[in-house]
Design a protein that fits this description.
- The chain has 227 residues and is α/β, with parallel strands linked by helices.
- The chain has a single domain, classed as NAD(P)-binding Rossmann-like Domain (Rossmann fold, 3-Layer(aba) Sandwich), CATH 3.40.50.
- Helix content is 44%, strand content 16%.
- The protein has seven helices and seven strands; from the N terminus they run E-H-E-E-H-E-H-E-H-H-E-H-H-E.
- The chain has helices spanning 10-21, 51-61, 87-115, 127-130, 136-156, 181-190, 200-211, and strands spanning 2-5, 26-30, 43-45, 69-72, 118-125, 161-168, 219-222.
- It has a seven-stranded parallel β-sheet, with helices on both faces.
- Helix 3 (87-115) links the parallel strand 4 and strand 5 (118-125).
- Helix 3 (87-115) runs parallel beside helix 5 (136-156).
- The N and C termini lie far apart (34 Å).
């Protein structure tokens, strides 16, 4: 069984649809983006910053199924130079991207440990590696996933549970649609391949991490050589 946070749009929706096509049982969350009618049975409204809502969703959906897989795709962004930052909006990014991810992990770990199997995959970002002006909130939230995952990996290594991150570059899906076209041209010029990534590369990386029992505590760069 696969549980995906933030599955109503972007990468989360893409992964949900692809796993459904391959016959997997998939459930997801949404919050501010209303799902299509056809997804009403598999998507649940959950504010992932609310630990009680997250735990209720996970315990309801994951009560059956021996092999549990959690893919954390829910996220938000806020761009501002540090000296001009609205602290409430900055903190909101941390609450969603970091605390929300941890809420999901914390809630599902007891079930994974009980069943002796678990796969946890988080979405991190090239933004945390490059030092891009105006992205301190997003970069901080994504960089924090690295250390958190290493610690949780060590805690659960003998329980059949792995946890890993994907450091994503610029893909033709999700938040990239908000980037102005002129700036998008500049971004592409900075990528060695001079192109945005195909989401299928994310899917294949996720499948690899699901199938690997010896890859844990890592952060895999999926970015066409962009550093």
């Amino acid at each position: 069984m696969i549980l995906i946070t933030g599955a109503s749009k972007g990468i989360g929706r893409y992964l949900m649809e692809k796993f459904q096509e391959s016959g997997e049982i998939v459930f997801g969350t949404y919050n501010t983006t209303l799902p299509d009618t056809k997804d009403a049975l598999v998507l649940t409204k959950v504010d992932i910053t609310n630990s009680l809502e997250v735990a209720s969703w996970i315990n309801d959906k994951a009560k059956s199924g021996e092999q549990l897989i959690l893919i954390n795709c829910a996220g938000t962004n806020y761009n501002s130079f540090a000296h001009k930052t609205d602290l409430k909006l900055w903190k909101r990014v941390i609450d969603v991207n970091l605390m929300g991810t941890f809420n999901s992990i914390s809630a599902i770990l007891p079930l994974m440990r009980e069943r002796g199997y678990g796969r946890i995959i988080n979405m991190s970002s090239i933004v945390a590696q490059k030092g891009i002006p105006g992205t301190s909130a997003y970069a901080a939230s994504k960089a924090a996933l690295w250390g958190m995952s290493k610690s949780i990996a060590a805690e659960n290594a003998t329980k059949g549970i792995t946890i890993n991150n994907l450091n994503l570059g610029y893909f033709d899906i999700g938040m990239i649609s908000d980037v102005p076209k002129d700036f998008l041209k500049i971004i592409k010029k900075g990528i060695p391949t001079e192109s945005l990534g195909n989401p299928s590369n994310i899917l294949e990386a996720v499948r690899f991490l699901i199938n690997s029992d010896y890859t844990t505590g890592t952060s895999l760069d999926i970015n066409a050589g962009l550093f």
